[in-house]
Design brief:
- It is a single chain.
- With about 180 residues, the protein is α+β, with helices and mostly antiparallel strands.
- Helix content is about 30%, strand content about 15%.
- It contains 5 helices and 6 strands; from the N terminus they run ββαβββααααβ.
- β1 and β2 form a beta hairpin.
């Protein structure tokens, strides 16, 4: 077991983990953050995309021990004071989802895209989301949602708010107060 300390969605957790535990499984199984889905487990679909120290990563390709000392933001950490992030609102308003399975990863990747390019063209959005797959839509409404969010006030990424209130399964990590 390896001891890690990671800030997730604004809360610091210290926990003993197996060195081979994937970040996506740590988030879901240890912290109860089930908003980050396990998609393909091969980095092909992007459904498990999270923000790790300011960059979007596919959490099925990162070990939890690699997040030691890092800050992770999940889809659940985007809302602030009960209000959705502009990307979450835009996906809802522009019908940028069908089954919703890919949506957390799409939103997290789009957040990274908008951080780098606050006013992308439709083609730049398509290129920016290239590593994220949707098996339900034709992507047009996803592109429309990202473009709408780019024009929304407060669409620039901000730090996560309060920790989620999900029940935790298995051994509970120690929450550290700063």
């Amino acid at each position: 077991m390896t001891r890690i300390s990671t800030k997730v969605d604004g809360t610091t957790y210290e926990d003993d983990v197996e060195p081979r535990l994937l970040l996506v499984h740590y988030l879901r199984d240890r912290l109860g953050l089930t908003g980050t889905p396990v998609g393909c487990d091969t980095t092909n679909c992007g459904a498990c995309t999270v923000d790790l120290d300011g960059d979007s990563v596919k959490s099925c390709s990162v070990l939890a021990v690699q997040a030691d000392g890092s800050t992770v933001t999940t889809i659940q950490g985007l809302s602030r004071n009960g209000s959705w992030h502009p990307l979450q609102k835009a996906f809802h308003e522009q019908h940028g989802l069908q089954c919703g399975f890919c949506t957390p990863g799409m939103i997290m990747a789009a957040r990274d895209l908008l951080r780098e390019n606050p006013h992308p063209s439709a083609e730049e959005v398509r290129e920016g989301l290239e590593g994220n797959l949707c098996r339900c839509t034709g992507y047009q409404n996803i592109v429309s949602a990202v473009l709408a969010a780019a024009d929304a006030p407060g669409s620039s990424p901000s730090s996560p708010s309060a920790p989620p209130s999900a029940s935790q399964a298995g051994p509970q990590p120690q929450e550290v107060t700063s």
